[in-house]
Design brief:
Blueprint lengths: L2 E2 H11 L6 H13 L4 H5 L4 E2 L1 H15 L4 H5 L1 E4 L2 E4 L12 H8 L8 E5 L5 H9 L4 E6 L2 H14 L4 E4 L11 E6 L27 H4 L1 H10 L3 E10 L8 H7 L3 E7 L5 E7 L3
Parallel strand pairs: 5-6, 5-8, 6-7, 8-9
Antiparallel strand pairs: 1-2, 3-4, 9-11, 10-11
Helix pairs in contact: 1-2, 2-4, 6-7
Length: 278
């Protein structure tokens, strides 16, 4: 039995109708098995899928029907136009986090700026910055050893010189000083009902949840960052859209000035930026 590609995709998308992106989900899963770019769908809608290929695709459709993230099923997620390998050891990079990268690139940093990405996960932020600013000396820190291996693998695959340290926050950095410290730390309250919804059900709680209503890790990073920032350096931390009133005071309380809120592409408060001028 053979089925046209466009007809198969329509049927697959119908099966995935609980998803907000059913058509895209179906396309990405099928393209994984075709080993073709997305343009193939529009160029060759009459392409015939045979029984063997459809049998290979079926388990992945079942996984998506059960709610498993597409990124885990295909093993990849694009971030800042970089193809990143992903797995269940860490967060799937979100488009909202690209707003941090954009804001960081606009900062008045030296051409050879020293930068560290804390809790790097897949390496998304660090690798995006290095891809745009090859003169920057970019490092990253990650606590989960499996995620460390993943970030290092992504750096190697992309040919980007980013050193990934294994450890908790500043612990592996000794007395190093930086011009920019950037982080997307855990910031969700453990009682947040969103933890039972969508892709986060398949992501490690350790990368999502922090004590003190989601603020504990942000508080730690802010307090310790002042020991590792050069004069005139910056701290930038991602947080929840509903934490725009609580995070900036944390920065100010440890001595940061020119503390500002930044928004994601949906116009929601997404990160806080502070300037270190002791």
């Amino acid at each position: 039995m053979r089925v046209r590609l466009d007809a198969y995709l329509a049927a697959a998308a119908a099966r995935l109708s609980d998803s907000d992106s059913a058509q895209l989900d179906a396309e990405l899963i099928v393209l994984k098995h075709l080993a073709k770019p997305r343009s193939f769908i529009f160029t060759w809608p009459e392409h015939q899928l045979d029984d063997a290929l459809m049998a290979a695709i079926e388990p992945d459709l079942v996984r998506r029907e059960a709610g498993e993230p597409v990124a885990h099923i295909i093993g990849e997620r694009e971030f800042w136009s970089l193809p990143l390998k992903v797995n269940a050891s860490t967060l799937i990079p979100r488009p909202d986090t690209e707003s941090l990268v954009e804001a960081a690139l606009a900062l008045p940093l030296p051409a050879n700026a020293r930068v560290v990405d804390l809790g790097t996960g897949t390496g998304a932020i660090a690798l995006a910055l290095k891809s745009e600013m090859p003169g920057w000396q970019v490092e990253a820190v990650e606590f989960n050893p499996d995620a460390v291996a993943l970030a290092r693998s992504n750096a190697q695959a992309l040919g980007l010189d980013v050193t990934v340290h294994h450890g908790s926050w500043f612990a592996p950095l000794a007395a190093k000083q930086f011009d920019l410290i950037i982080s997307n730390p855990p910031y969700i309250d453990g009682d947040d009902h969103h933890l039972g919804q969508g892709d986060v059900r398949f992501e490690p709680l350790s990368a999502l949840v922090a004590p003190n209503h989601g603020l504990a890790d942000i508080e730690h990073i802010a307090a310790e960052s002042v020991k590792h920032l050069n004069q005139g350096g910056f701290l930038m931390v991602e947080h929840g859209y509903d934490q725009g009133a609580t995070v900036p005071p944390i920065f100010r309380n440890v001595g940061f000035t020119e503390v500002t809120l930044g928004q994601d592409y949906g116009g929601r408060d997404r990160f806080t930026l502070g300037h270190w001028q002791p």
